[in-house]
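dumping this here before i forget
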Amino acid sequence: MSLTADDVNKIAHLARLGIDKQDIDSYAKDLSGMLDLMTRMSALDTNGIEPMAHPLDQVQRLRVDTVTETNQREHFQAQAPQVADGLYLVPKVIE
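structure:
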């Protein structure tokens, strides 16, 4: 797909981007190249291919889910202007 200068100007307007006149042809070429790549990729047969979370098939290191901090709820709520039933009370701001 080949974009024209008018297409780039419309896209820039919709995205609220300011583009210099001398850069429009460069943007049109780059965007057209990206759209061509997407078109070629969508034509590939991906049946039977498992989705991956990472291209290098890495796994995340997991840590033990243990509590490492002490409960300071009472300390923090003692400094609050208004508290009820363990909740912070704030003024109503939306009608």
